[in-house]
Amino acid sequence: MSEKENSTGDYRFTIIIPVYNEEENLYTLEEKLRQFLTHSFFQACVLFVDDGSKDDSLRRIQEICARNPSFFYLRLEKNGGLSAALKAGIDHTFSDYVGYMDADLQTDPEDFNLLLRDIEGYEIVTGIRANRKDSFFKNLQSKIANGYRRMMTHDRVSDTGCPLKVMHTNAAKRIPFFNGMHRFLPALILLQNGKVKQTLVRHYPRLAGTSKYHLRNRLYGPFIDCFAYRWMKKRYINYHVHENNLD
């Protein structure tokens, strides 16, 4: 069991939800998360990370957390992007397992149970979006980016852009973080000699709000970040302590 350093240590599973200007989705997301927590495979809590939202997201998050005892939040000082929000959430998680999903409701928290059933045997279980509901152009961009990433990293993962993942928290805390890191979570777990499993999950069209991604951060960003990963792979350090007298 993870050492308790905040309220997430009272739970076995923490769901991190990075939020940037998603006010229109938050109340519906709250209801879906509340329903999921009643029958999560492990006792679970929710950790919103407000990434410097400029709309009413923060006020709604605070309101949601006030009426739900298993809901918590962090507010970042300024917008830092998805990788920064995810790192902040992981740094403040002390449950055994940590997962994340986007706030746009294009994935369903109910599918976390599909990932959690296998998490004890893998360091990360990642979703693959079945029957994607995005536009043809968005799907094409994703297909190109995923293909290029697989060629560069050899991680054999079909869909790293799927915003539904579960990890062992201790493995997640050892991930070297950088801008764009969220695209490489399975590959970065593999650097630790960890095991990766892929599982089909459902996907839905966005019903409210607008996407924060465009051509530059779907294609140009991953192209550059692949070189950062290749550099890191050659220099990554793994070690295992055989003995100590620190107790």
Characterization of the model:
The protein has 247 residues and is an alpha/beta fold. It has one domain (7-133, 159-209): Spore Coat Polysaccharide Biosynthesis Protein SpsA, Chain A, CATH 3.90.550. Helix content is 36%, strand content 17%. The protein contains 8 helices and 7 strands, in the order E-H-E-H-E-H-E-H-E-H-E-H-H-E-H. The chain has a 7-stranded mixed beta sheet, with helices on both faces. Helix 5 runs parallel beside helix 8 (215-235). The chain is globular and about 45 Å long. The model has no long low-confidence stretch (mean pLDDT 84).
What is the CATH first-level class name? Alpha Beta
In what range is the share of β-strand residues?
15-25%
* Coarse structural class: alpha/beta
Helix content: 25-40%
Strand runs, count: 7
Number of helices: 8
The name of the CATH superfamily reads Spore Coat Polysaccharide Biosynthesis Protein SpsA, Chain A
- CATH topology description: Spore Coat Polysaccharide Biosynthesis Protein SpsA, Chain A
User: Major sheet, described briefly?
Assistant: 7 strands, mixed
Low-confidence segments, given as residue ranges, are none
Radius of gyration: 17 Å
Quickly list its features.
247 residues, alpha/beta, lipopolysaccharide biosynthesis
